[in-house]
């Protein structure tokens, strides 16, 4: 289990499926996470189980927990490119009462550090859409830089929007956030 200042990250378990199914059917969560409302709501419960537990393909998905072990979101990566040591990151805070409170920032810092120091990736990228300004500010706070746009690549509620492409390199991230250190107590800091 990974631990940040506010969050814990662990593998997704069967007990998480009902909550993940609820989030996949929530208009506001899907609107901000991907702009894919109502497309994401077409998943059945069995498809959610298949997606998260049985056949995750080349996608690695994890549960994000708060300080009291309440499931508040998911984080993960996909599109692993071994020769380039790069990967694409995704994150969703499904519990809306945790939006804007720093849980996403803490999860991103914790998880991206893990990807750079344990998986030995050189580059982490992600994308969002142009009106998701809260997410863009969070990504920039973590160290991601806007690298480009795909014009009108997203169709959201009847309108085309640009996809915003962002990335961070290992050296940039570690200069900003540092590596974990083992304290004399034996805990990671």
Q: What's the SSE blueprint?
A:
Elements: E1 2-3, E2 8-11, H1 17-24, H2 27-33, H3 45-54, E3 60-65, E4 71-81, E5 86-93, H4 103-117, E6 123-129, H5 133-142, E7 145-156, E8 159-169, H6 170-177
Parallel strand pairs: 5-6
Antiparallel strand pairs: 1-2, 2-3, 3-4, 4-5, 6-8, 7-8
Helix pairs in contact: 1-3, 4-5, 4-6
Domain N-acetyltransferase: 7-171
Keywords: Ribonucleoprotein, Ribosomal protein, Transferase
Protein name: Acetyltransferase, ribosomal protein N-acetylase
Give an overview of the whole structure:
With 189 residues, the protein is α+β, with helices and mostly antiparallel strands. It has one domain (2-177): 3-Layer(aba) Sandwich (Aminopeptidase), CATH 3.40.630.30. Helices cover 31% and strands 32% of the residues. The protein is built from six helices and eight strands, in the order ββαααβββαβαββα. It has helices at residues 17-24, 27-33, 45-54, 103-117, 133-142, 170-177; strands at 2-3, 8-11, 60-65, 71-81, 86-93, 123-129, 145-156, 159-169. It has an eight-stranded mixed beta sheet with strand order 1-2-3-4-5-6-8-7, sandwiched between helices. Helix 4 crosses helix 5. The longest helix has 15 residues, at 103-117. The protein starts with a strand and ends in a 12-residue tail after the last helix. The model is unreliable at 181-189 (pLDDT under 50).
């Amino acid at each position: 289990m990974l631990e940040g200042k506010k969050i814990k990250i662990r593998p997704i378990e069967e007990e998480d499926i009902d909550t993940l199914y609820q989030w996949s059917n929530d208009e506001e969560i899907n609107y901000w996470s991907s702009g894919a409302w109502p497309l994401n709501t077409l998943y059945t419960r069995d498809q959610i189980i298949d997606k998260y537990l049985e056949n995750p393909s080349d996608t690695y998905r994890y549960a994000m927990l708060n300080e009291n072990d309440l499931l508040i979101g998911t984080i993960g990566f996909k599109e692993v490119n071994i020769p380039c040591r790069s990967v694409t990151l995704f994150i969703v805070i499904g519990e809306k009462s945790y939006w804007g409170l720093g849980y996403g920032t803490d999860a991103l810092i914790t998880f991206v550090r893990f990807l750079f120091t344990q998986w030995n990736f050189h580059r982490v990228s992600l994308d969002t859409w142009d009106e998701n300004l809260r997410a863009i500010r969070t990504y920039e706070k973590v160290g991601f830089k806007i690298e480009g746009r795909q014009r009108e690549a997203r169709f959201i509620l009847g309108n085309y929007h640009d996809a915003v492409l962002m990335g961070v390199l290992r050296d940039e991230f570690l200069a900003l956030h540092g590596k974990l250190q083992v304290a004399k107590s034996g805990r990671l800091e």
